[in-house]
Amino acid sequence: MKNTNRKSTPFKYQTPRDGEVRAKKHLGQHFLTDEPTAEKISESLTFSGYKNVLEIGPGTGVLTKYLIKKDVDLKVIEIDWDSVAYLKENFPDLEGHILEADFLKYDIPSIFNGEPFAITGNFPYNISTQIVFKTLENRDLIPEFSGMFQKEVAQRIAASHGNKTYGILSVLAQAFYDITYLFTVPPSVFNPPPKVESGVIRLTRKENYDLPCDEALFFRVVKTAFQKRRKTLRNSLKIFQLPDNLREDAIFGQRPEQLSTEAFIDLTLKIQPYAIST
């Protein structure tokens, strides 16, 4: 995935003269600087049932140094040229294991040749939810996922129904993974410090992660319901043009945040005979 045209401009692949890699605002970078926090994140994976680990956005390798010590095949994926140059210079063990690419655009099955792998990292705030959705799309290959998010996003992913932060991301992630909120991280351990706290969570894929309903319809129902989260499902799901006798079911009198993931699956099964998933 290397861009040979970019290589023709050598200064882009060199670290700054003072040896420091500076965080880039447009990439949403906040480099972790606290060693104990990095070690705790490295311990957030169980390393059970797989031998491959992908770190997203290693930056200056603060977390990477602890992952290298694990008995796993580690690869890192990094879009920032300065960070790639720094990693190559300071982590010789990563030779041949650095992917110079955008995770969101990468062919995920090719990373470990179709073998299962875990994901971890200190994720850029501006793409963290997209990373989760990309993971859900490739859940067959990803039994475990851990990492650092903006605290609000981490709480949203882990939120249970009935909570104000519970939403689309909560339902979809919890349909396929068990979520554990592990610990909170203060802004002071980053360079530059973000304006908010961060949170580390772990997603462990469920033993049975195949839905008993039409998956595309399930996604559609969840997203449609939360687009008008203050309305009851009877009103927010009008687009499905369901028969009146079905809409009289008690579940349609509830608002979306009142439904657990399992309840959304049941709702989809009720709708499925009348709706065409697109």
UniProtKB/TrEMBL annotation:
Residues engaged in binding S-adenosyl-L-methionine: H30, L32, G57, E78, D102, N122
Location in or out of the cell: Cytoplasm
Domain Ribosomal RNA adenine methylase transferase N-terminal: 37-207
Keywords, in A-Z order: Cytoplasm, Methyltransferase, RNA-binding, rRNA processing, S-adenosyl-L-methionine, Transferase
SMART domains in alphabetical order: rADc
A GO CC term attached to the entry: cytosol
Protease as UniProt keyword: no
Tagged with keyword Methyltransferase: yes
Main location class: cytoplasm
Annotated EC: 2.1.1.182
Record field: catalytic activity: adenosine(1518)/adenosine(1519) in 16S rRNA + 4 S-adenosyl-L-methionine = N(6)-dimethyladenosine(1518)/N(6)-dimethyladenosine(1519) in 16S rRNA + 4 S-adenosyl-L-homocysteine + 4 H(+)
Family statement: Belongs to the class I-like SAM-binding methyltransferase superfamily. rRNA adenine N(6)-methyltransferase family. RsmA subfamily.
Stated role: Specifically dimethylates two adjacent adenosines (A1518 and A1519) in the loop of a conserved hairpin near the 3'-end of 16S rRNA in the 30S particle. May play a critical role in biogenesis of 30S subunits.
Protein name: Ribosomal RNA small subunit methyltransferase A
Protein's organism: Gillisia limnaea (strain DSM 15749 / LMG 21470 / R-8282)
Gene: rsmA
